[in-house]
Design goal:
58 residues; mainly alpha; 3 helices; 74% helix
Length: 58
Amino acid sequence: MNCINYNTCIQVILVQTKYQREFIKLGLKVQYYRKLLGLTQEAFADKAGISWSHLCKD
């Protein structure tokens, strides 16, 4: 993690942990509906207009 200073690093970490559960829930919902529609990750990324590798980044 590249941070400008200690306080910036702490702020980044707090934001990551504050919203971590919401991001996980969102990801699970996307996965559920993607599978419900019978789309692979590649097909979903194509429909979303993004690369498959961008979609799979954590």
